[in-house]
Each structure stands twice: as C-alpha cells, then as structure tokens.
Amino acid sequence: MRTLSLIALCLPLTSMAGEVADTIKDSKPVGRTAGEKFYYQPGVVAISGVVEVPIFHQDPGIPGAYVEVTTGEGEDAQSFLMVLDPGASHVTVTSAFLKAAGGGEAKGKLLDGVEKHDVGGGASFHIGEVAFTDVRVFAEASGGSGPYPTHGVIGLHAFPELAAAILPSQGVVRFASADQASQLTSAVSGGVTLPYTMQDYSKESDGREKEWLVERQAILEGSFNGQPVKVAFGAPTVTMSGAGDADVEAIDTVMGECDRVWSNSGYGLCTATLSLGELGSFEALAGVDGHVEKYGQVWDFLLHGEFYGGWDIAYDPQAMTYTVAKAAEVKRQSWLDHTLEETLKGLEPDPETGEPPDAEAAAGTHASLAEIYQAKNDPTLAYEHARKAIDGTPDDCSAYLTLGSLHLANGDYEGAREPLRTAGDMYAAWAALPYDERVDTSEAKDKADKKEEPWTGPIPQSNSCHTAWGDLAEAELALGNLDAVIAIYNEHFDLDSDLAIVAGNAWLAQGLLNEAEAAYRQASRLLGPRSYRASLGLAMVRASRGDNTAAKRSFENAIWADSHGEREMLLDLRSFAATLARASGPDAAADALTALSKSQPTNPDVALAAAEAQKNAGRDAQATLDRAIALYEQRIQVLGDTADNWGGYAAALHKAGRGEDAKAAAEKALKVDARSGAALMTLADIASSGGDASKAGEYLAKAARAEALNPTMAPLLAR
Length: 719
Hints:
This protein is of the alpha+beta class. Helices cover 44% and strands 20% of the residues. The strands form 4 sheets. Strands 1, 16, 17, 18, 19, 20, 21 and 22 form an 8-stranded mixed β-sheet that branches.
C-alpha cells in the first residue's frame, strides 16, 4: 500500500553535495581559513547569544534534525519544518518555501541532469531567534507543497558565521555565532573532536560553460582497512578510479571484500571497517561506482540519518572541527502535532477577505488531514476527513484513492474495494485520452477556473491515481479473490507496474509457476533491476521448482536492491535461508546469513535472520541474537515508533524466550500499522508455542493478507 506511506510521499531532496559524476572537469580539495566566505554570498545571519530550538521527530530516511522555520510576520507568518544538516553545502527548499520566503525570481539551471532553481538573494526566514536575511537558496524544479516535513535542507556550511550543536540527547538544537562555538562544543559531554577540511567541485555541462555552483562539504580523514580515505557527510557510496571489472583488485585494496561488481554498470557492494580516529571504528557497507575516472571519497551511511539521529554533534566553523558523542538517549518532539496545526489553517477563512477556502483547496486540506490522522493512529478522524475530501471534489480520483488507501492500511479490504475501483475507473478514463488532448484539456480547464467559468469537459486527474488498480488488486488478493486479481491485471497492467507483482503472487498462490514467472519478469522489465519484489517473486518460483541455486541468486538480487535496509526484510530473509538450507544444507544457510550480517552491521533484520539460521545449523547463536535485540532497541530509540522496528523486535524477543515482552512489542507494532507482517507472524509463533493451533492459524492468515504484495508470503494465501 503506497499512498499513505509518509516517507514515500516526502518530496525528493537534492543529492548531497560532492556526488561525483562524469561531468566533473576540475576537482581539487581546498582549505578554508576562519571567516572565509562561501563561493557565493550566503546572506546575513543575525544572532545574539546562544539560541535553543526543539528538534522534531526525525524521518528515518532524512539525515539531520527537523527544526521549525518561519517566514513573514504577523498574519503573513508561515511555518515549515526543514532539515538542519551540517554536511549540506547549500540550502535546498521546495517551491512552497521559496514563495513564502520571498526570494528572487527562480531561474532554471541543469545540474547533474536535474533542473534546479537559483533564486539569488532575497529570501528571509527565522529559526527561533536566528534571522537569515538576503539568503540565496536553491529549489528543485518539481518542488511542491504539502504538510510533510520535507520542505528542504538548511546546510550549515552555507553560513560560516553560524555555529550549531545538534543534541538529540536533549531534544534541542543550539545556535551561536561562530566566535562563540566553544559554548556549544562544551555541551557535547565526553565528545571526541575531529578536524575537517573543505572540498570543492567545479562542474561543467556538455557544451556549456562552467556552472554557477561550486559544491562544498566537510571532509573527515579516516581509513578503510588501513588505507587512508576521506569520509564526508552524505550519500552512502564509494567512487573509485577506472571502470568495470578491471578495477576490482584496486577496489579490494581499500574496501576489502566486494560482494559483487555488476559488469553492466561497474557497481558493486563492498564491506570494510571504517576508522574515524578517536571516534572509533564502524563496520560499513558501501557501494562502488567503477565508472568514475577520478578518485572520489568514501561516504559511510553510518554518518547519515542514524548518525545525526543518535549522536550529539557540535559544529565549529572557525576551528573547523566536529565534536561528537554518542547520545545515551534520544528526545524529540513529534512533527505530527506541528504538521496538524499548520494543515488545519487551510480550512480557515482568508485573513484579508474573510472568505472560506474554495471547495478544491478545502478538499486537498481534508485529504492531507486524513493522512495525518492515520499517522496519529486515529482512523475515525482519518475516514471523516477522507469523506469530506470526496464531498468537496467528487470528480477527483485522488480523493477516492485516499479513502480506499485508508481502508487498505487498516486491513479493511472489503471497504477498500469501492473507492479504489472508483479512483481507478476515473483515472483509466482520463489516461485513455490522447496525450495532446489531455494537455489541451488541462490548460483549458485552468483558464476556465481562473475566469470562474463553468467547466463541462473531461476532468483532469492526478497521476497519483495510477496506483489505484494495484491497490485494488492487493485488496482482492487479500480477500482471496484470485480470479478478480487476474482480471484487473489483464485489463489495466499498463497503468500500474505493481499489478504484475500482485498477479504473480496470485498465480504463485495457485501453483501456476509459469504464469507467475512471466508476471514477475514483466515487473522486472517495468520497474528495473532494483525491483526487490520482482526478484523475490522469481526466487520463490525457482525455489518452488527446486532450482535452489537460481533461487539463491534471485534472493541475493532482492537483498542487494535494498542494501541499506530501508524496508522490513525479515520475512524475505527467512525464505532466503530456507532456500539455501534446502539447496546446500543448514550450514550453508548459516554461513551466508552470517556473512550478510557482517556486510550490513546496522540492520537488525539481517542479524536476527542470521541468528535463526545459526540456531537451525546447531550453532551457538546467542551473541548474534543479542546483537539483533540491541540493534532493534537502538533503532527504536533513534528512529522512533515504527511498525518495522517493533515487529522485528517482537520476533527477536520471542526467539530469546521472552514471550510476554515479545507479545507486548508485537502489539505496539500493530498499533502503529495493523498490517505488520513480522508482528503477526510472531503472534502466530507465540500462539503455536502455547498449543493454540487455531489462533496461530488466524494470525498466519492475517499475515498473509497483510503481506499480499510480498511474494514470499504467497504460499500462505493458498491455505
């Protein structure tokens, strides 16, 4: 179910600075003296003394800490949540923020193939008592608005006169002028201080003069396997010299074991130990891009979201140092209350005219409120606002999609059918029109709306509604209506690529392996080689045929496609281990999962699957199980209450023999997400251990319905 995933709905952020690309013509490290200005004039920061503002709850997918940003004064004041990131080299914001901040005219520029807007000086905003005036900002061309706390990134390196300390242990961010940075550094008790340098990248586009932006970011000195490297805050990738398989040996020299190098792209996954001086060593997984001609840097993903979320860190731009200490506990405010407060303003009358919002604007606000209340675990209010969105815009497919997705998220598959079919029919009718006609119709309707003239033509529909058919097929599959799934697939597979996955699962549940394989292969072509569900489906087909060697390769492809553990992997890894055990015995499964656990040292799902495989092979799994439990507890502390965290934690506690604790954790997971597969499977295991086979069967059936999009669960649907 995709529509209500708040993380997926977050607007994409600009790639972190320093991402090495083939377009780089000149790359050299540069030092920076205290007080030196940025390549472009960043504006003025006004601050007196030390200012403290709260940290809001952090999205696991976004580095840094959310802080509240305000623009305008009095009735014109608007509030945004933005990410504060010491590693970002410039300010990246959405168009909604740009408009409110009053920046200059946006001019499109192409940088690394993505159009961004250079908005010159003029933007102004506040973080608490810190005033940023005449700031130059950048925005993605596709920037939009919405209630989600991803309006942009504030890069501290863009403001060298400003020092900051991000203190998750206290739930605050502290700001001071650069000459008072020592007051902030002292707040990081027991911390280690590391010096950094700055690095520039001048970029050119093919056939164009040098771009207007020189990217900068902080570089820490470190080492991988005894080889010196430069470690930057940012994306989890490693760039090396040369291209393709010829440089595997050179990559191995620095990185250690490379799991694979893809001959078609030069990309591979490597494991190594990253050392950051006195800060300590980290087991790290990194990608290798062999196509870059110049030696790049190492970016360790541990210095990403989990690092900023779980460590106190003070930034001193004059001494050019970071002071870092592990946070014993993490305190943050929830962004949901802030977001709810701001979103409710969309239903208020215009402060100047006293007029209420028009029906379309109000409906959009109600749709946003529906998703916010769902995130707050209040489905009653969520349904209420979703229906109000439909009442306000009965011709808008996205309003029906919101309601149907709510039913799907809450496990009400029967209730999801009608609104999802309505949304699908409306979108299919719109998509059936020729492209030029859709463009002309949209423009004509916009003109009519501006003139407040009635419109009698076709109603343009949101592209988001293309997911309605896949969601409907998922609901039908959960209800056991396999023939209905195939009928939807045959009629609408061109509108939603996930339909191929759902159809493949339906055929797999019936044992129709040839049909299932064809559907999964189609999904792989549509979604690309990193479609983990397509790879999982092919793995299950091959395992069902007894071709465990081929199944192993497909499972590995699926795991590689989600190498940073951004989704719940436990159920998939269990199927992977079972396939390996059938193919080569329990020891082979234990060896493979143990190696995978070493390559993904911060992923608790992998650690738990490794512990289970070790135990099945008759080995001592206690240390691995303890590590899995500790990793789940760390994720819950740093990233908050998510169904994935609590569901996996419940499974780990059950394996440790802590039945009551496991049940409590599973119930917490289901409170966050009623369709947590790991939680439901754990409750099934607990019931089975207690001799209640009937209750265990109920949980298994519910888990199968909840995980209807997961090919590894398809066999349970046949029960």
